[in-house]
Design goal:
Number of domains: 1
Number of helices: 10
Largest sheet: 8 strands, parallel, barrel
Structural class: alpha/beta
CATH superfamily: Phosphatidylinositol (PI) phosphodiesterase
Radius of gyration: 18 Å
Helix content: 25-40%
Distance between the termini: 36 Å
Oligomer: single chain
Order of helices and strands: HHEHEEHHEHEHEHEHEHE
CATH class: Alpha Beta
Shape: globular
Length: 259
């Protein structure tokens, strides 16, 4: 916790502790045990957020970080981009397509279709830790959060749900408090007073159990304060030895890609 010049907790540190307390160690310990492959263990022959990338990560015994966003029907699909163009031969917004249609769309240069979250959870089956980034811009996050929570019903294995959007953390704190939740943070282009205030408000609103911090920002005052009061910090996206060395000093676990 940040201290005042007199050795007492600062007002900001007290507010952090009140609105974003550190989780119980048993709630988070399994989740920090292994490094996470960013969007699965992908590369030139394995597309990101694909079944084969997840199988490769499991084969290495590494955790998996993946992205989900909602179809037009509100179902959680495992896909990073808001547009289909880069990763499929289709174009336009994923959110404009219905569930049945998305299940038929193939990932580019593969025989795989766009995965839906329940299918991926069945594939992983709790064998390695899992981080689910919920991509839900704006304030209307309920439909996607409901889909994710339903998919996780009965899932056995270490899993955390995280998002840049603090509304997601807030939603899970109310409707799915047993699910470990995180706040994804970057300070890029947001280092002035407005950015610092926005990050603090996001922290207090999301009430996270952990932070997932941009490696380029470490060490950060907010990440240091979080670790100081016992809140784990993951860091993304580590791509080389320099990133790993920085992470080893300033974070509790990495989310990585192989260059």
């Amino acid at each position: 916790m940040r201290l005042s010049p007199f050795g007492l907790p600062s007002p900001l540190g007290l507010i952090d502790r009140a609105f974003a307390p550190a989780p119980a160690s048993k709630r988070i310990a399994q989740l920090t045990a292994r490094p996470f492959a960013h969007r699965g263990l992908h590369g030139p022959t394995r597309l990101e957020n694909s079944r084969v990338a997840f199988v490769e990560a499991i084969g290495e015994g590494h955790g998996i970080e993946l992205d989900v966003q909602a179809s037009r029907d509100g179902d959680a699909f495992v896909f990073h981009d808001y547009e289909l163009d880069r990763l499929t031969k289709e174009s336009g917004a994923l959110a404009a397509r219905g569930t049945a249609e998305l299940k038929r769309i193939k990932l580019r240069n593969t025989y795989e279709t766009v995965p839906i979250l329940p299918e991926v959870l069945q594939l992983i089956a709790g064998r390695v830790p899992l981080l689910i980034e919920v991509k839900a811009p704006g304030r209307k996050v309920g439909a996607l959060c409901v889909s994710v929570l339903r998919a996780l019903d009965g899932y056995r294995g270490p899993v955390g749900v995280m998002s840049f959007n603090p509304q997601v953390g807030r939603w899970f704190s109310i409707h799915g408090p047993r699910v470990t939740r995180g706040l994804v943070v970057t300070e890029q282009g947001k280092r002035r007073i407005r950015g610092r205030l926005t990050r603090r408000l996001a922290l207090w609103r999301a009430k996270p159990d952990f932070l997932a911090y941009d490696i380029r920002d470490l060490p950060s005052a907010m990440s240091v304060a979080a670790r100081g009061r016992g809140m784990p910090v993951f860091t993304w996206t580590c791509r080389g030895d320099e990133d790993r060395a920085r992470a080893a000093e300033h974070a509790d676990q990495i989310i990585y890609e192989i260059p």
